[in-house]
Amino acid sequence: MKTVILSYPIENNSPHYIGTTEPSLEPLTQIKNGDDYNTYEITVGNHSGTHIDAPKHFIDTDKSIADYSPEELRFKNPIVLDCPKKPYELIEINDIHDANLDKCECLLFKTGFGIYRETDLQKYLTKSPGIAVETVAWIRKKHPEIRCLGIDTISMSRYQDAENAKQTHITGFETNPNYGEPLLFIEDMNLGIDTKIKLKEVMVVPWQIKGIDSAPCTVMGFVNQNTIKKSYVNLL
User: Fold this and answer.
1) What region does 12 belong to: left with phi over 0, alpha with psi -120 to 50, or beta?
2) Residue 127: is its pLDDT beyond 50?
3) Could you tell me the domains of the chain?
4) Residues paired with residue 27 on neighbouring β-strands, in sequence order
């Protein structure tokens, strides 16, 4: 079994949603400066870099990310779905209608927009595509076993579309008798993995901080060793 990393580390100037705090890692004591040990001060918004949104992000009375058990953050039969999108475009029902999502607990959208994270950060932050509200509703109704959605953009919703952002998240997070359990959203994912590789499981490890809605996280995918090449993604 091999482990692939589907998230990015937090570093200075990591992508963050416009209007939130820019990540900063400042050295405090440093051995190279004559101190006895190294320490750092970390300043980061909880929606910076790869992070996981819990329902409390948009529904104040619902669960925060710290309320989830480790078992609830493990997802079987995850699928990375090729879904190429241009700036501001939305993932529509027709994009995923024919995909085989049987037994999938975690659906990850590879829009291709992740390439701009390194080559054109401003474009990545300000022109990102997203997912249509109707698509989230369709997923929850037709595939109630899916408990998590992920995407290789800074947000599940497209940039500068406040109504899309609000309704996309609420539709994913609300408790509804016609749907499965409320979703989790993983944003700013590293989906360089070849979609032909079948993931067996995905595990999300969020920062354990009480009282916040969502948190930066590490996302690990597990695959059979004979189905992966080192060139696809970084291996642990």
Assistant:
1) beta
2) yes
3) 2-11+46-227 (3.50.30.50)
4) 40
